[in-house]
Amino acid sequence: MCDKHYVSRLPYLKDRIHAAAMYCSDGRVGEHFDDFMQDGLKLPRYDRLALPGGPACLAGYTEARLEEEGVIDELRFLVSAHQLTRIVLIQHQDCAFYKNRLKVRDASIEQLQRADLVRSAYTIRHWVKIDQIDGYFLRKADEGIVFEPVQLD
Asked: Which pTM value belongs to this model?
């Protein structure tokens, strides 16, 4: 805990980027998400929706029904208040949400996650009315963390 108040030296930039990313709240890859969004996709200051399993909550699981309703409501708000025009959905390798909450076997997780990106994009298009949705799968590789595009239609 910090005993004194902290002052960030970063400037406040009021202009919005009109994009959001939805991904897992796993802190081990949080900086990688930021790096990819800011440097890979050139989307600085993007809005963030981080929760266990990320976009999986929009894929129709009964185990995530409450989260689905909340995220749809939040996305509608962000579209209205922040004028979102683009959403980036990201799944990551070895996600505990799939292993622990959904009880998916390791051998099936990645295939299911990729399919869930497609289902999540459909849900967003249906309920939130955003057409520009991109999907990515984060994988650990010898050269570092790789973000692979996933076709969503």
From this structure: 0.94
